[in-house]
Amino acid sequence: MDLPPDSAPLAAELRNTLVRYHGIAGSQWRLAKKTKDATVWRKPSEEFSGYLYKAQGVVEDVTNRIVDHIRPGPYRLYWDSLMTTMDIMETFEENCCVMRYTTAGQLWNIIAPREFVDFSYTTSYEDGLLTCGISLDYGEVRPNFVRGFNHPCGWFCVPLKDYPNHSLLTGYIQTELRGMLPQSAVDTAMSSTLANFYSDLKKALKT
Q: Total structural domains in the chain?
C-alpha cells in the first residue's frame, strides 16, 4: 500500500472499526491476564488468524496527558521499554501521521526485533480521546528486522465521571508479528506486554 493521498477516508474507517470493537459484548472476551494495573482479554481476530486483545485499567491522570504519552511523539519512546526507535515519516492534517518504529526482542529473543510502519490518527471520543493506528505496506524493511503488521489497533481514554483526574484507558491490539513463531509464544508475549504497558505508563506519568 502506498501512502494515502487523502488521509481522511482511512482515518474515518479506522475510527469506525475501533468504535465497533469497543462495542463488542463482554461475553465474547476470554480472560488472558490480570494484574494490579490492568486486565487483558482476548478473542479470535476477524482480520487474521491470531487474537484481538482488549486491555483495560484506570490510570491516575487527565486524558490529554495520558494520550500524549501513547500517541506518536517524543514521550512514547522515552518510557515504552518495548519501543527502540521511532521516526515520523509523514504528517497529515487532523492529527494524522505515518510513523516507522522498531521493537526490542522478546522472550529471550525467541521473538526477534520487529519493525512496523503505521498510519496513526488521534481524535475525540465522548468526553475523551481515541488514538488509533493500522500498519501500511510502505518502504524498505531495514536489515536485521522482521516487518510486523498491526491490524486496526487503538486506545480509548475517557475521564472517570466521579474522579476527573483519573481516566479509564481501554486498548484494542491485534499485532501480526510474522516470521516463524509458535503461536503460544506470541500469545504469552502479547498478554504480558499489554499488562506491562500500563505499569510502565503509570510510572512515566508520575515523573
A: 1
Alpha helices in the chain (DSSP H): 7-22, 63-70, 74-79, 183-206
Could you tell me if 195 and 31 are in contact, meaning their C-beta atoms sit under 8 angstroms apart? no
Give the CATH number of the domain where residue 133 resides.
3.30.530.20
Does residue 87 register a pLDDT over 60?
A: yes
Q: Which domain holds residue 99?
A: 31-205
Residue-wise pLDDT for 151-206, tens only, equals: 999 999 999 999 989 999 999 999 998 877 777 778 888 898 999 999 999 999 99
pTM above 0.85, yes or no: yes
Average pLDDT over residues 54-74: 94
In a domain, 5, yes or no: no
Residue 120, in any domain of the structure: yes
Evaluate whether residue 78 is within a structural domain: yes
What are φ and ψ of residue 103, in 5° steps?
A: -120, 155
Distance CA 32, CA 43 (A): 9
